[in-house]
Amino acid sequence: MLQAELAKLRSNCMTRHVGAVIVRNHRQIATGYNGTPPGVKNCFEGGCKRCQLRMEGKIESGASLDRCLCNHAEANAIMHCAILGIETGTEGAILYTTFVPCLECTKMSITIGIKKFICLDSYPETDYDLLEEAKVTVQTLDKTKIKYWAKKLIEDYNVTMIPK
Predict the structure, then answer these.
(1) pTM higher than 0.90, yes or no?
(2) Which residues pair with 94 in a beta bridge?
(3) Cβ distance 99 to 121 under 8 Å?
């Protein structure tokens, strides 16, 4: 999950930063973060008008998602697999993501054989009935544990990596 938290730092979306990691057999095989496609102006530079309107309070959260140019973190991780020719398979594929995936990302995840989501937070556009029907389990982690390990990582970095 710390890898998903790190991936979200690369997000260029103005409204929400999300990170995702696909793991198979305890090995990270793909990462993703949300933002505009390659070659398109970054969201925070005005690349996505929908996100800009959302930041201005003219569009509510979850509305007009079909107008958003940003790819979701989970979709980017799935596309990463496709670009690199990595097959996820059904044996042990887990999606770690900072939010439970939306409907579209859920459908893509089911299609490539992911059977478990491990998340930090909920998302209003999630279809839990679909997840149940597809026998995909959702596990929500305690955020305080992630904060502990992130803090520990920074403390260790300051102790061992920064010369005195």
Answers:
(1) no
(2) 23, 116
(3) yes
**CA pair distance 164, 161, nearest whole angstrom:** 9
Q: Are 97 and 78 in contact (CB under 8 A)?
A: no
C-alpha atoms less than 13 angstroms from C-alpha of 110 in its C-beta half-sphere: 19
CA distance 147 to 110: 29
Instruction: For 26, list phi and psi in degrees, rounded to 5.
Output: 65, 20
- Looking at the DSSP assignment, which residues form a beta bridge with residue 21? 31, 96
CB 22 within 8 A of CB 114: yes
pLDDT in tens, 85-114: 887 665 668 999 999 999 999 999 999 889
Active site residues: 74
